Amino acid sequence: MRIVVTGGAGFLGRHFCAKLLSLGHEVLCADNLLTGRRENIEAFEQNPAFRFLPLDVTTPLEVDSPVNAVVHMACPASPPDYLRFPIQTLEVGTIGTRNMLALAHAKEARFLLTSTSEVYGDPKVNPQTEEYWGNVNPIGPRSVYDEAKRASEALTMAYHRRHGLDTRIARIFNTYGPWMRANDGRVVSNFIVQSLQGKNLTIYGDGSQTRSFCYVSDLIEGLTRLLLLEPGSGARVAAQTEDWGIHYPVNVGNPREEKIIDIARIIAEMTGSSSPVKFHPLPKDDPKLRCPDISRARRLLGWEPKVPLEEGLASTISYFRETLG
Amino acid sequence: MRIVVTGGAGFLGRHFCAKLLSLGHEVLCADNLLTGRRENIEAFEQNPAFRFLPLDVTTPLEVDSPVNAVVHMACPASPPDYLRFPIQTLEVGTIGTRNMLALAHAKEARFLLTSTSEVYGDPKVNPQTEEYWGNVNPIGPRSVYDEAKRASEALTMAYHRRHGLDTRIARIFNTYGPWMRANDGRVVSNFIVQSLQGKNLTIYGDGSQTRSFCYVSDLIEGLTRLLLLEPGSGARVAAQTEDWGIHYPVNVGNPREEKIIDIARIIAEMTGSSSPVKFHPLPKDDPKLRCPDISRARRLLGWEPKVPLEEGLASTISYFRETLG
Hints:
The first copy, chain A, contains eleven helices and 13 strands. Chain A has helices spanning 11-22, 38-41, 79-84, 86-107, 143-163, 187-196, 216-228, 234-241, 260-271, 295-301, 309-324, and strands at 2-6, 26-30, 50-53, 69-72, 110-116, 167-172, 175-176, 201-204, 210-212, 214-215, 250-252, 257-259, 277-280. Chain A has a seven-stranded parallel beta sheet with strand order 3-2-1-4-5-6-11, with helices on both faces. In chain A, strands 7-10 form a two-stranded parallel ribbon. In chain A, strands 8-13 form a two-stranded parallel ribbon.
């Protein structure tokens, strides 16, 4: 298949491009490098099946050749990033999503939206199933990301319902692994980089809030299965047990919950760091817990995470050791 | 002031244009007439202070002259309309809102977003205060409207936070009055038109769900006060009692709750109709109750609705008697 991947130079985009190339697909990677990095995709640039399109998907994207699928991943995704680029974040999630849906529609291509667990906001149910409508502050500082993704989902469903577009929506939970940015502002990369550099480990709040962390190879396997699922295969099986078809959102993440403070301890131990933990006030509207119910992914995709936390952390730590060094 | 009003040929837009003209302002009314009607604004077209711009605000709007305020009202607003135009509804609420914010920013103009009680979805608290985050299904059929408006609010706050734009957000609850479309699909117009035409009165569900209905002149008075409020006047007063400034959303609606079935009875009585009531299944995700807490509007704007239901219904009934006849 010839697949457009927007945001392909980002952390997850990079891994998804690599996976699709390894499966023999052609990849057109569209990225404006606002938060993505050219170095993430350098390894592919000699590959004739890969093409980099340095552009912003908030302007319409024209592709001469046929396209079989559009994967719309582009979006600043870590809180420091989307708070730094609030308007761009909303634009890529609204105008960008509309443009990419229009491209998929014009090319009669499949469309995959990488949405987020942030659509659940600060959830009042735990774990979160896809049926949960969420608890999101529409006007808080984080709304630039959360509402952009909720609008992206609404747009995606509208194209499916209106035009019969073959759409899929993945709701991605916290993911970590090699190729994260050191200054990305996420929990795992923060702790690893701080440990390796002998700095204080910064915890927001008292560290008792939980997160679930999915290793990137697991996450990408789930996304790949969702993208490549043929209508009538997994969908038919799922239809026997549930109303929801292949086009409804699917949680992709690791249901193993960890307290932030425990993650800090494990990473400090694994890196041999003796950095002290430093507590900071919790940011506004920070979710207190977040854990996916992945029953639907299990049924629909036959997928679940395989990589244990310690193993995933080990390879992430060695990645940062190498790149920071 | 020179004021751009998008959606100015719609039901509320028409009344807002009339009000602003009567106060001596100039109005540039932008409308693509998707659900607005040229006849709504015919009365103003000879007025030199009024100009109609027949255009779609999802394409950038260029105005040569200075502009002091942009009022973004454009959006299909009744469920039959936005279900018929799902993608246009999302587009005007995302791309359209961005374009109008960009216009206000370029002109250093004030910006008023007419948002909606639909951002509260099917609320779990009653009445709804502006602090309530809502209960909205991001992927249901109604999400094309609800999420468009939530994204509009997020965009508006982002422009305020990022660029210091002088923004205001009104969350409008159910409103009725002359110049509603007969086939608009809203409760009050449905019941009146059905009564006058001797047809069955259609109730969705058992009619026990409540709505609050604001007469249009009350609503427009609230919007006008919010638009014209000078920073530091009402805002300063409000700041003594609350954290929230003039830029945060303000509920504008009538807190008097009515059961749908009671509205049907009152209208049948007032029109002298003997039409029987017919019950239909409740549509998906229909909110079971909806009532504004207007404490903030009272404090900030010194505003509350004045027109009793029976009086408002009387003038709406005579409007429809005239226009249907």
